[in-house]
Amino acid sequence: LREREESGRRVGVDTGGVARLKGSGGRVLIVDDNTLQAQVMAQELSLEHRPMIEPSLEAALETARGPVDLVIVNVTSERFDGLRLIAQLRSKEPTRRLPILALVDTQDRARLLKALELGAHDILTRPVDPEELAARVRTQVRRKRYGDFLRQKLDHSLEMAVTDPLTGLHNRRYMNGQLDALVARANRGGDPVAVLVLDIDHFKAVNDSLGHDAGDEVLREFSVRLATNVRAVDLPCRFGGEEFVVVMPGTTLEDAHRIAERIRRDVGASPFRILGGEPLSITVSVGVAASRGADDTPASLLKRADEGVYEAKKAGRNRVVV
Ligand code: GH3
Ligand code: MG
Ligand code: MG
Ligand code: MG
Hints:
- This is diguanylate cyclase.
- Keywords: Phosphoprotein.
- It comes from Brevundimonas olei.
- Residues 191-322 form the GGDEF domain.
- The structure is a single chain.
- The strands form 2 sheets. The chain has a 5-stranded parallel beta sheet, sandwiched between helices. Strands 7-8-6-9-10 form a 5-stranded mixed beta sheet, sandwiched between helices.
- The termini are far apart.
- The protein is an alpha/beta fold.
- The chain has 11 helices and 10 strands.
- The longest helix has 32 residues, at 130-161.
- Residues 1-22 have low confidence and may be disordered.
């Protein structure tokens, strides 16, 4: 038993090591009509990477659009136009940034230069030296991975810049940008745009009686109800504090009014559950406005909706005012 346990552990360590290598390795697409040559390269790369062989140029272009980290293209022959593939890969998304290694004959300077000119990132000369293959592939895969990592980080920061961290709704900055564009379009005679301004009633009382964390929970639950009662095209945003705005593209005042009523009703329909506390009745006051002609601005639109909120509060809260 002990022996089996030990051998089991050894196997465990080994597969862990391979898994780690595979994780850092790349998905390498070898595009070559010389299958024997492709298989030799694939064999050499398979220790560290996940090679795939594609003998057809058309199919390669398609495969390269999927999860691939590096393309090795044979450009040595006239009838297999690898140079054209390089040009195609570099010309369009989503393959534009994909690293490319061009496989050329050592003495074929013309094709080597052409491949580089078309955007190959590096060259492999034939006959292929296994160590050189490993080194060049590793460098390109590492570069690709780092590029992916940076792009992901950038996407994430861009997303964070337009997202409200508490609720996950769009933030005020995002709302302003979208509203500017939509009002400008409406003013040029395009689709109308409507806005709702929503202000939770007596929210201060929630904070005062149950604490700030309970208040935050109410804001999150409110956001869920808001987001589930607007349409896919609408943009629910947290304007700040307990004030929310929904920007509604292509929406008339009447339609916006109807959706505002639906939100108001859903918020008041069932109590909000607070972790470790009594269910809480929440209501909201809503103002509605829609663009009306060339002189309208985002600010005037928001102001009219905000005046609706003011009227709703004055009239006793828990209502929609157009
Ligand atoms: P009204 O019905 O007139 O709108 O009354 P209200 O109490 O909702 O209005 P008021 O504007 O006086 O209070 C808003 C409160 O929202 C005050 C502030 O402490 C609280 N608040 C603002 N931002 C946050 C937040 O992020 N979390 C929590 N928990 N409270 C917040
Ligand atoms: Mg308020
Ligand atoms: Mg207020
Ligand atoms: Mg309020």
